[in-house]
Amino acid sequence: MSNDTNTDDSLHEREDSPDDAPSEEGIDDGGTLQHDEAEEVDKKTIDDLGSDVEIDADVAENVDEDDLLGGLRIETTDEIPVPDRLVDQVIGQEHARDVIMKAAKQRRHVMMIGSPGTGKSMLAKAMSELLPREELQDVLVYHNPDDGNRPKVRTVPAGKGDQIVEAHKEEARKRNQMRSFLMWIIIAVVLGYSLIIAQQVLLGILAAGIIYLAFRYGSRGSDAMIPNLIVNNADQKSAPFQDATGAHAGALLGDVRHDPFQSGGMETPSHDRVEPGAIHKSNKGVLFVDEINTLDVRSQQHLMTAIQEGEFSITGQSERSSGAMVQTEPVPTDFIMIAAGNLDAMENMHPALRSRIKGYGYEVYMDDTIEDTPEMRRKYARFVAQEVTNDGRLPHFTEEAVEELILEARRRAGRKGHLTLEFRNLGGLVRVAGDIARGENAELTTRDHVLQAKRRARSIEQQIADQYIERRKDYELSVNDGFVTGRVNGLAVMGEDSGIMLPVMAEVTPSQGPGQVIATGQLKEMAEESVQNVSAIIKKFSNQDLSEMDVHVQFVQTGQQGVDGDSASITVATAVISALEDIPIDQSVAMTGSLSVRGDVLPVGGVTHKIEAAAKAGCSTVIIPAANEQDVMIEDEYKEMVDIIPVSHISEVLDVALEGEPEKDSLVDRLKSITGSALNKGKGVKGPSSPSPQ
């Protein structure tokens, strides 16, 4: 054993000596850039990267603002070159791109918050390309002869780790050959003596077996001297990138495998059982953790330590495992942390971890939409080309197909003059359209394929909403003609991209005590508050004493999910006013809109999907807030089916929805005079630029 230890120590000395350093050619073969290549990369500054890269295709000199392709002169997306580097493929998110570039220059941590599919992971991967070139490292774990449960850690230049391990293996192989040769000589001598001189065959065989086992047992100590290469960057051509999204503690922080044979010479050496975590593999690179709030508190605390100290020891993560007895020397963790998530990620994120990121880096909110300009439309055309090229199995898209996709990007933005930045969902539509074209053995993906894909690639919420509408028709629960007192066709959204029509019914009854407003239908907090706001308007204009009446409001068939948001405010107000005044409501009318306590109609979200839901249900008129008029981008098939009426005040809603001229006119006039908002005085109060959902 003493000879083995001396050999191991000599290898340690050779590891740090200049003679053991690999040649420049060896380092280049290991994956790092040569000097000339590095100079060529440095000539391109980081400021030239990302979405500033222009489209390398034929563009018209005088671009028409209404040109859906922004002046691109192409027949198919095959004519649009796709950038080689990921960072050049980033589209939109100008602010986030600028922050990523600064963070890459200064090696700062970044937290990106935003909706799914807006490019957080793509920017994180692109950052590894932007990082300053540094000498990558290999990490080896050695047996500690003084304490087997405290393995030693060594870091060497990238590519050198393999050479050191091979050198140790070669030394071990030579030692084993010498041991085997010596063992067989001794066994031969013992057998010869027992057979020829002592004439004790059984005793000779027993002695030979004992000698064989002794040599084999001793050789295990020699194998234990071979180091464990836990981080190998020999083939890494750029800074490492590790996606640790959803990783358990062992995968994130490293682990030590359990050993059921812990003694008797059959155990695996502790250093051979060490497994690196993502924080160790991302040393000198980028560690990306999406949905950061899903990590348990203990993992977040350890992650915070790794960021702060730049090193983190590896130990067994299960306290019941023999690996829990093992703890290595600190392993380097000099990574850039990119944490990502939705808005709720900040609520459950460890405050100290967020403080580390914010104190040593940047926080970025990802945009959902971007201004619709000719330049941006050209980049959306390049996006389609990128998706086709990256997939590798889709036919290229025709000019008309790309135009249809840009129209869909406008529609999904939900804002006038904007395009959506949720590229993951838009990319899904590209792939479905390409799959349809491929299934037909078409050479190109056409506009018709995109239209088929839009019908086929509906979300779960859209499919549920369509089935819900059909079932209501079967049971005659949908009323879209005639006049009914106290019943209004309200509109709501399910998920993010599907609309549904939900009736609201109201009834006024004598009260057994103090009058109150009673709302049913699994209403959530915001919806409850909107009902209370409506009751303020009713109390103000009504000639009847509501203290002696109960006002019952029912949201019909809302299901277990209930109703959230305040977009049913004008629906509730119209239903209750109809019930109080006993004036029927036109059932061919559907409506959506929020309501202030003064009767002004405020903007809401999802108006496009709500209008389409009303059209599917057979309604001929849809009332929406005037502030949302610019956000309407319904499909062509629905434009002739419904009349869209924008309103600014509850009096305008009643003027359209209620039946009977004399009664209705007196009611509307009375409401105008009491609330102080006249129909001919402007367009009402304009709501916030970002309508609230529902």
TrEMBL record:
Residues 195-360 form the Sigma-54 factor interaction domain. It is a multi-pass membrane protein. GO terms for biological process: protein catabolic process; proteolysis; regulation of DNA-templated transcription. The chain crosses the membrane at residues 182-215. Its EC number is 3.4.21.-. It is found in: Cell membrane. The keyword Lipid biosynthesis does not apply. Residues 1-48 are annotated as: Disordered. It is an enzyme of class 3 (hydrolase). It comes from the Archaea. Residues 16-28 have a biased composition (Acidic residues). One of its GO terms (cellular component) is plasma membrane. PROSITE patterns: LON_PROTEOLYTIC, LON_SER, SIGMA54_INTERACT_4. Homohexamer. Organized in a ring with a central cavity. ATP-dependent serine protease that mediates the selective degradation of mutant and abnormal proteins as well as certain short-lived regulatory proteins. Degrades polypeptides processively. This is Archaeal Lon protease. It comes from Haloferax gibbonsii (strain ATCC 33959 / DSM 4427 / JCM 8863 / NBRC 102184 / NCIMB 2188 / Ma 2.38).
